[in-house]
Here is the input.
Amino acid sequence: MGGIEQVINELARGCAHLGVKVDVLSLTPNKSPKTIEINGYTSHRVKLNFQIASTGFSISAFWRFYQLAKQADIIHYHYPWPFMDVVHFATRVCKPTVVTYHSDIIRQVHLNKLYRPLKRQFLDCIDCIVATSPNYLATSTVLSKYKNKVKVIPIGLDKSRYPEVFPERLQFWQEKVGGKFFLFVGLIRYYKGLHILLEAVQGTGYPIVIVGAGPIEQELKESVKKLGLKNIYFLGYQSDEDKVALLTLSYAVVFPSHLRSEAFGVSLLEGAMYAKPLISSEIGTGTTYINIADDTGLVVPPSDPLALRAAMTYLWDHPKQAAEMGQRAEKRYYEFFTADKMVKSYVDLYRKLQVIN
Here is the structure.
């Protein structure tokens, strides 16, 4: 489960708790898709037929979406997903619509040129666009065209839904990775900047724990061998309990994402939620809305391994200041980023759109 899926789950279960009936439509590669009740909402899964440039397509999604949209009061999309735009127009939806704008399209430059007319038409007809941080709204050329209908609702997490960690799991991981380490959690993709992190720790001996899996994982492991790095732990995907155990044990959370494809940083927010000092890059997105430079952690220029190393060294050598940054990060989480705040803002928006329409 990536960050967007985590947000959808958090939002759907929170809305359901407030009495909103929620149906979530998604694609699955499973041969026998199922509709299931989960966390108080209904998850409708239709078969994924093929993918182009990370965008899933499904023939059966058209009819299923049409059925669900007829029953709904509000349609809530999550952008970017170009197939969603096609389904929207093909089924001629005439309901109030919301789009959570998670990210600009960064990597697929040439395909984006082809998609641009459809994207513009789609965003033009949406009633409200939600940006997940004021930082992203301020730096997105796409969102700048729609400022009159953009609302900022930060992503929120509910710490009470994270599992309790038992002492034996903490002991297990402490024996495996040590008692003082930098932690990265996330899908291992090109924009996460882990190659920069590996270069930054050359010659330092700092333990780095990497939780997650992804398409460039093997490439990074080969880089570790070539660079002769020690104390780099690739742990792959971990259960929520083990992830929380590693968050609890970690000294600091390092989040070196260097491209705007990293629009927010849910795992960076998890670090703040567990009172960890944070290190991130200034890429004009929500990462620097979570992590305030020299307050909740340190912010470095993107793609700068020397600056990243200096930030890690400062935290490593100044435990008192690092702990104070972690405490301020936790305080900021409770002030701005709880699931309750996010859910209430969306439910208020839904009700407003219902009244207007």
In short: The chain has a mean pLDDT of 94. Residues 319-336 form the longest helix (18 residues). The first strand starts at residue 23 and ends at 28. The two ends are 34 Å apart (CA to CA).
